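(Deposited chain)
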Amino acid sequence: MEELEGVKGIPMIEDFPEVFADDLPRLPLDQGTEFVIELEPAKALIFRQYLDNFVVVFIDDILVYSQSDKEHREHIRIVLEILQKHWLYAKLSKCEFWLREVKFVGHIISSEGVAVDPAKIEAIIEWQRQTNVHEICSFLGLVGYYRRFVEGFSKFSSTTTTLTRKNAKFVWSKKCERSFQELERRLTIAPVLALPELHKPYVVYSDASKMGLGCILLQERRVVAYAS
């Protein structure tokens, strides 16, 4: 469910489009003075009771998910009643109901699990070689959004990450190129991650060395997430 008629947008985002990009994974890194702004849209507040139960709110998007058609019908009714109670209206032309697969914040979500959005991966594949630190930060920010899909992500990103350090000399070496290409390749073959079921047990495999740490979270032999 897309932007609600009753709330045209968050003023902070509308006033500073160059800072709050449309696609949050592409947000620029902190520059100059560091500060934090916590934004909790009104829509998130009114659904607080149901968040992460059967509702997810992201800026102006509302995702309703359920285990069965019967549950879904009830969940949609609850969401619409809450919107009505608070005088918020969903534009019908921007709503989609009863989907078996949905694109949401850069992911494809279905009963099979969570997959990366092919459109985002295509953008990564077409990314030009970095020529300065700002471009490296932008690239790492985008691929880093999908790091839980890539086993050993830190190992492949560490080479280019060192170029972003203060006073580091920018030299795009063969090692940087190999890391860049390997990250692209890994994302094109990224697995479909399992949707975790909270009532079932998890298994964690981990490994560590002087160089780093890596682990895999699994449930019923399916990967839920990689971390490194």
About this structure: The chain has two domains: 11-98, 115-188. Residues 154 and 228 are 6 Å apart (CA to CA). The chain has seven helices and eight strands.
